[in-house]
Amino acid sequence: MPLSPVSEAPPTDTHTRRLRRKDARPGELLAAALDLFVDKGFAATRVEEVATLAGVSKGTLFLYFSSKEELFKAEVREHISGRFAQWSEEIEHFEGNSQEMLRYCLNCWWERIGATKASGIPKLMMSEARNFPELAAFYQQEVIQPGSALIARVLQRGVDRGEFRPMDLKYAVYMVLAPLLFLTTWTHSLGTCCDPASQIEPEHYLAMQLDMLLRGFSTTSAPPGAGLS
């Protein structure tokens, strides 16, 4: 009597869980690293701590990221620089006026970065860049340059359409960036320990900053409600 062909056994539940676990590890490592980088700083964070928090071994971490520096770069790309292509596309197809566009940009920044744990990354870079020049150069190339270019596009659009008065774009970009950087620095420093009466409401703060910016940039007075909506 011929033997019946042996069918391949389906993967076990344990095997499936292991595959899912392996697929999830980069994201878990990035989440753990973000918590530690923001809370402790880059220099004080050890890869062993990241691995422990993510529930893996240090060796497993190095399978995905060759060094702490590469882990940090992946963090920046995941939460900030990886968003620039989408933001550029949104700006390219924006149909409102330039005041509305600038308002939209600040809204998006707050919703996608400012209100998240990733808002601690800019503050970390400002405090530790001098001690890590290679990371500072990376951040300049990956975040500051493309981010400044996007803001400059918005402002230049306003100038070209006669909605904004002519301006020195280099320093106008810094004017837009300044309140964002202040807010991230405050949120992750004095904002964590000051008394309730001194706390800043981020949305209200950005609304006031935007109102002042638009009144300064515009060829006419900014309309009522020019802040974040």
Explain what the structure shows:
Keywords: DNA-binding, Transcription, Transcription regulation. This is TetR family transcriptional regulator. One of its GO terms (molecular function) is DNA-binding transcription factor activity. InterPro entries: Homeodomain-like_sf, HTH-type_TetR-like_transc_reg, HTH_TetR, Tet_transcr_reg_TetR-rel_C_sf, TetR_C. This protein is mainly α and 229 residues long. The protein contains ten helices and no strands. Helix 5 runs parallel beside helix 8. It folds into two domains: 65 residues, Arc Repressor Mutant, subunit A, CATH 1.10.10; 138 residues, Tetracycline Repressor, domain 2. The N terminus is likely disordered.
Order of helices and strands: HHHHHHHHHH
Summing up helix and strand content along with how strands pair, one would put the structural category as mainly alpha
Q: How many domains? A: 2
- Stretches with pLDDT under 50, minimum 5 residues: 1-8, 14-20
Q: Give the count of helical stretches.
A: 10
What is the class of the largest domain in the CATH system?
A: Mainly Alpha
What share of residues are in beta strands?
under 5%
Strand tally is 0
- Reported by name, the CATH topology of the largest domain is Tetracycline Repressor, domain 2
| Main pleated sheet | none
- The average pLDDT value, as a whole number, equals 88
Helix share of residues?
A: 55-70%
CATH architecture tag of the largest domain: Orthogonal Bundle
Q: Roughly how many Å is the radius of gyration?
A: 23 Å
Distance between the termini: 80 Å
Note the overall shape.
Answer: globular
Organism: Rhodoferax fermentans
Domain HTH tetR-type: 23-83
Pfam families: TetR_C_11, TetR_N
DNA-binding region: 46-65
